[in-house]
């Protein structure tokens, strides 16, 4: 499937998950998310933000692959949208890290994503780390199921050898006034347990690729067109055809990319295990669109977004810890907030 992604590049988001064996037979599960704004600047509450890296966040978990159990998890945030500063009263995106540690221990079952949302979603955490941990949880179960499907058993390897890697790359393009084209590529790579391969290609176990091309009306926050296809190979030289997902996506045009979209996607696609990679790709569409919107100058320059011109672009209330109701950023964007919290006041600790 040719994505045919054309337009003015606005934003790229990548999410990656890698599973590698440990000496004790457990798995190191590592994930990272990176947001890269590709043009212009954005008026954020309290400041102007240029193009470049917006978010860079990582998680490292230890997983029991037999019990499907998350035993420990840590997070780090090398690049965040909001560093501790006087105008944030000393608050920072990194204040949410302790909440991530509290997710373990946990069983990696069908309810894991919901439990993560309850634990670090909304004003309790960071929406980007939330998306990453949910992707990591789903990727572990998917990878282990495919190993059992392909080989009938897990095949432990030497410490440090990778078992599986998943990468999601989401590119947003400006294709007209308040319209976005979003190209999504999901790639799963399964690695064979070859201790000392003579050639790198001997490490190939299997790979799956999912591609999604979506068009979004940003004024209505609605999906106007979408197509997707998938390819699965168990040999690196195979020439397998792309399989269309047109049937699974029938009637999805017009879907509103706002609160409730996750539940709707789960209702449409969550009942069929074979569609899980497609579902994982589509679950990342709305967050990626939200990141791309900040790069559309036409959006924050319109009368509809006059508040953004005055106080800066921001997220909705309680979207995350930094945008929680009554927090420093929430007060800064309200009329009269300067009297409540002066930007030059000493930070609270």
What does this structure look like?
By secondary structure, the chain is an alpha+beta fold. It has one domain. It is 24% helix and 34% strand. The protein contains ten helices and ten strands. The protein has helices at 97-101, 112-120, 127-151, 261-269, 276-283, 285-293, 297-300, 306-311, 328-332, 337-340; strands at residues 8-21, 27-44, 47-64, 69-79, 106-107, 162-176, 179-191, 204-217, 222-233, 243-244. The protein has a ten-stranded antiparallel beta sheet. β1 and β2 form a beta hairpin. The chain is globular, with a radius of gyration of 21 Å. The termini are far apart. The model is unreliable at 303-308 and 338-349 (pLDDT under 50).
Question: Biggest sheet, open or closed, and with what strands and sense?
Answer: 10 strands, antiparallel
Task: Determine the strand fraction and express it as a percent band.
Answer: 25-35%
Low-confidence stretches: 303-308, 338-349
Tell me the number of structural domains. Answer: 1
How would you classify the quaternary structure? single chain
Estimated structural class: alpha+beta
Query: Order of strands in the sheet with the most strands?
Result: 5-4-3-2-1-6-7-8-9-10
Compute the average pLDDT. Answer: 88
Task: Report the strand count.
Answer: 10
Ends: how far apart? 53 Å
Radius of gyration computed on alpha carbons:
21 Å
How much helix is in the residues?
10-25%
The total of helices stands at 10
- What general outline do the C-alpha atoms trace? globular
Pattern of helices and strands: EEEEHEHHEEEEEHHHHHHH
Protein topology:
Blueprint: E1 8-21, E2 27-44, E3 47-64, E4 69-79, H1 97-101, E5 106-107, H2 112-120, H3 127-151, E6 162-176, E7 179-191, E8 204-217, E9 222-233, E10 243-244, H4 261-269, H5 276-283, H6 285-293, H7 297-300, H8 306-311, H9 328-332, H10 337-340
Antiparallel strand pairs: 1-2, 1-6, 2-3, 3-4, 4-5, 6-7, 7-8, 8-9, 9-10
């Amino acid at each position: 499937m040719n994505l045919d992604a054309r337009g003015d590049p606005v934003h790229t988001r990548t999410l990656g998950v890698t599973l590698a064996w440990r000496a004790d037979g457990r798995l190191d599960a590592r994930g990272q998310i990176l947001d890269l704004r590709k043009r212009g600047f954005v008026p954020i509450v309290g400041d102007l933000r240029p193009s470049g890296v917006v978010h860079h966040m990582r998680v490292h978990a230890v997983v029991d692959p037999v019990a499907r159990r998350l035993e420990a998890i840590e997070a780090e945030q090398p690049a965040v949208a909001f560093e501790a500063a006087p105008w944030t009263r000393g608050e920072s995106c990194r204040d949410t890290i302790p909440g991530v540690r509290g997710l373990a221990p946990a069983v990696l079952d069908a309810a894991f994503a919901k439990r993560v949302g309850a634990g670090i979603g909304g004003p309790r955490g960071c929406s980007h780390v939330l998306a990453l941990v949910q992707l990591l949880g789903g990727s572990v179960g998917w990878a282990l199921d495919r190993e059992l499907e392909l080989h009938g058993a897990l095949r432990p390897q030497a410490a440090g050898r990778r078992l599986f890697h998943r990468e999601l790359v989401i590119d947003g393009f400006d294709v007209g006034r308040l319209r976005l084209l979003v190209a999504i590529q999901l790639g799963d790579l399964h690695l064979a347990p070859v201790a000392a391969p003579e050639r790198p290609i001997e490490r190939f176990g299997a790979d799956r690729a999912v591609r999604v091309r979506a068009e979004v009306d940003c004024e209505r926050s609605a999906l106007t067109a979408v197509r997707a296809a998938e390819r699965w190979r168990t040999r690196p030289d195979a020439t397998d055809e792309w399989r269309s997902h047109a049937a699974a996506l029938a009637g999805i045009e017009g879907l509103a990319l706002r609160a409730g979209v996750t539940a709707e996607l789960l209702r449409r696609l969550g009942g069929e295990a074979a569609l899980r990679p497609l579902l994982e790709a589509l679950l990342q569409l709305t967050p990626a669109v939200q990141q791309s919107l900040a790069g559309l100058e036409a959006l924050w320059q319109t009368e509809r977004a006059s508040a953004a011109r005055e106080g800066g672009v921001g997220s909705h209330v309680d979207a995350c810890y930094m945008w929680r109701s009554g927090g420093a950023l929430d007060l800064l964007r309200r009329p009269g907030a300067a009297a409540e919290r002066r930007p030059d006041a000493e930070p609270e600790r």
